[in-house]
Amino acid sequence: MIGLQHVRPAFGKLIVSGTLFAGLMLLCGCAVGPRYSRPSAPVPTDYKETPPNWKPAQPSDQVLRGKWWEVYQDPQLNALEDKVNISNQTLKAAQAQFAQARATVRYNRADYYPTVTAGVSATRERFSGNRPLAISGATTTNDLVIPVDMSYEPDVWGRVRRTVEAARADAQTSLADLESVGLSVHAELAVDYFQARELDAEAQLLDSTVASYVKQLELTDNRYKGGVASQVDVAQAQTQLETARAQAIDVRAQRTQFEHAIAVLVGEPASTFSLPVAALNAIPPMIPPGLPSELLERRPDISATERQMASANAKIGVAKAAYFPLFNLMPSAGFESTTIVNWLSGPSGFASIGASAVVTAFDVGRRRAASDQARAAYDQTVANYRQNVLTAYQEVEDNLAALRLLEDESNTQTAAVAAAEHSLTLSSNRYRGGVTTYLEVITAQTTALANERTAVQISGRRMVDSVLLIKALGGGWNAASLSTVKMESRTPVPPGQ
Question: How deeply is 406 buried, as exposed, middle or buried, from its count of CB atoms within 10 A (0-12, 13-18, 19+)?
């Protein structure tokens, strides 16, 4: 410890403290640890399942900006999605987490500057007249002190800078996580909404089927009473009718579950929320996937893992800074007197400054272990980043393939529905003419209903997969938005930082 103590009233001696402070600040120009650069990741030149009618010259994010759900042109869906931003509790929790991360950045930035403490103390003490080496008898003294102390650790080796760098990257990770949560919640709502609409369409189909089966049962019963049909035909028609009614009830039960899920997503109790019935009658919009190289900037989860790498890289520098000496400045000043009358007078002033440099000489390998741990953590984030990139491309390809194949399946299923309805018409006419038994009609009815329900389900799957494709593409988000959000207060950075 190197110290200098002055009890003279002149505070000008504190210029020494400022000079030493400025000298150490000049040393704060380097930061130990590796510089960060984004590791490479496998990026294909094009999507394998790129739609044949997509033109690369078009803006790749033409329909994916902000409120991406508006591409479906569904006012009810738009209204529900707007409620998510206001009332969804999962989103609010992610926003609070981001606020915590921003506060952590400000907390670590405070280490750039000195810590100053001030106080006041008053002591009255009576000394024994029989104490050792006492010059006179018992004495009573007052000690009134107003000290102002400062402690400052110059960031010579960049430990503070690397800590702030890591905290800022963590805050950006939290922001990207917030965007991921928002994208997931909005996509989940759209998926639930379209599945509910698909079930509405199935319920509508089953209701019309039940009405048709009721008429068929009446016809069969009349034929039985007229001696043309058997009681078996009546029983079969009754069975077919009740089966359709049971299927309609089951569809509405499933629809209720999606309605409750939507209620939670928009932040309302399930008991007070109601989604009006409306059958699905839309086709998915064209979603241009853009270029594969753009996906790394459009997925918030990929940006989150990339920012995790930056944070882990900065923490390597923090670990390496432990190998170097730790400097500390400890200036102090104030007033001290025995009476209030001259407490704040010039002769009562005092000042001191101290400086220290401490280095760890032997720690049984703790610093090396911490450094190895930081490097291993960085390697882990790199592997997670590359895995996340591979998964992202898989998700895009999966949904592109699903949309392409489901479009073909929809066209084929439409033909199957038409054929099944024609077969049912022929069988019904044959039965009315007494040419065949009611079993043929039942078979045709079952086939027609199954094909019609499959066609409705395919329509719902196409809408769901279009939502999942938008989610896989990032929903129009861009990583550039991470740099536009202020991660800390507007406190100026010290010189050299």
Answer: buried
Neighbours of 38 (CB within 10 A): 11
- Determine the residue type at 233: D
**To which H or E segment does residue 368 belong?**
helix 366-432
Q: Report if residue 370 sits inside a domain.
A: no
pLDDT in tens, 464-483: 999 999 999 999 888 888 87
CB atoms within 10 A of CB 361: 5
- Which pLDDT tens digit goes with each residue over 419-478? 999 999 999 999 888 888 889 999 999 999 999 999 999 999 999 999 999 999 999 888
User: What is the number of residues in the chain?
Assistant: 497
Give the residue among 424, 429, 426 at the shortest CA–CA distance from 442: 424
Average per-residue pLDDT for the chain: 87
Domain membership flag for residue 338: no
Instruction: Tell me if 7 is assigned to some domain.
Output: no
Report d(CA 299, CA 51) in Å as an integer: 20
Question: How many angstroms separate the Cα of 120 from the Cα of each of 83, 117, 262, 376?
Answer: 55, 11, 61, 49
- Does residue 436 lie within any of the structural domains? yes
Q: Which helix (H) or strand (E) element contains residue 254? A: helix 231-265
Kindly tell me if the per-residue pLDDT of 102 is higher than 50: yes
Q: What CATH number is given to the structural domain containing 457?
A: 1.20.1600.10
pLDDT at 338: 87
Read off the tokens for 488.
Answer: 């800390």
Amino acid at 294: E
Measured distance CA(462)–CA(282) in Å, rounded: 10
338-390 pLDDT per residue, tens: 888 888 888 889 999 888 999 988 889 999 999 999 999 999 999 999 999 99
Distance CA 236, CA 234 (A): 5
**What is the C-alpha separation between 156 and 161, in angstroms, rounded?**
10
Distances in whole angstroms, Cα of residue 166 to Cα of each of 115, 300, 305, 414: 22, 19, 13, 57
H helix runs in 28-137, sequence order: 75-87, 89-109
Give the residue-averaged pLDDT of 102-114.
93
| 151-181: pLDDT as tens digits | 999 988 989 999 999 999 999 999 999 999 9
Q: How far is the C-alpha of 433 from the C-alpha of 19, rounded, in Å?
A: 113
Contacts of 472 by beta carbon, 8 Å cutoff, 6+ apart:
299, 392, 395, 396, 398, 399
Q: How far, in Å, are 301, 450, 458, 460, 466 from residue 287 at the CA level?
A: 20, 30, 18, 16, 7
Query: Are residues 141 and 124 in contact, defined by beta-carbon separation less than 8 angstroms?
Result: yes
Other C-beta atoms closer than 10 Å to the C-beta of 404 total 15
Question: Domain total for the chain?
Answer: 1
Both tokens assigned to 240: 């077919």
Axis crossing angle, helix 300-321 with helix 366-432, rounded to the nearest 10: 170
Structural domain for 165, as ranges? 35-122+156-320+381-482
Whether the per-residue pLDDT at 11 is higher than 90: the answer is no
